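Data availability (excerpt). All sequences and predicted token strings are deposited with the supplementary files. A representative entry, Peptidase M15, is shown inline so that the format can be inspected without opening the archive.
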Amino acid sequence: MRSRPIGFLLTALAGAALAFGGTTASASPSAAPAPGAASAGDVGTADACYTWSGTLREGSSGEAVRQLQIRVAGYPGTGNQIAIDGAFGPATKAAVTRFQAAYGLAADGIAGPATFNKIYQLQDNDCTPVNFTYAELNRCNSDWSGGKVSAATARANALVTMWKLQAMRHAMGDRPITVNGGFRSVSCNSAVGGAANSRHMYGHAADLGAGSQGFCALARAARNHGFTEILGPGYPGHNDHTHVAGGSGRFWSAPSCGI
Ligand SMILES: [Zn+2]
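Structure token line:
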């Protein structure tokens, strides 16, 4: 920020104010580049959510890497999940490579301007991917409180879940994915008869409607995008939705779908 031209700052501030105003930025289909702001020396255009200022590669570390890991969490390879730990290791490199390939970029596992600009196109001013919102991921309360983790952690987990869903959505032809719920406080979970250890209480889980894809296609695709818990048709209580979640361990069950 410190070395950027003033117009850049104003644009960023305007974006920040917009995000701060409380109304979600989901109306904007993509993060608009700041007009005239990009110069030859800039790595990427300004972004109201998060702007990377360098190239990241295996061996890099810190908050910039952690922010990148959130965005590529949906590209861990089948059955895997990447750590959101700020350490750019082989798994992060592979995820970045898959992200790049998914969007037709040079797939070298090094995150530079082309990768960051694609991410800017894919995110709203509140850092959610353009096709998902915090509101969709929390139909229980407005402040993410009352779960099994802090409100901040629950919200952060939901953000990762949204980026996984964005990756899955893209892999399935960019058709809308219906999210019928996500985070639940302990009391919301009890009210709907959720499991005592439900990952909904951690912000990790999302319940998906059939949409145009169907429950089984969603369950199958979820295996490729970082979901360690997948419950769908044939699993008790899951004939009318597909449940996907992150978190440790793996449990996939959708017998009617061959999972
Ligand atoms: Zn669920």
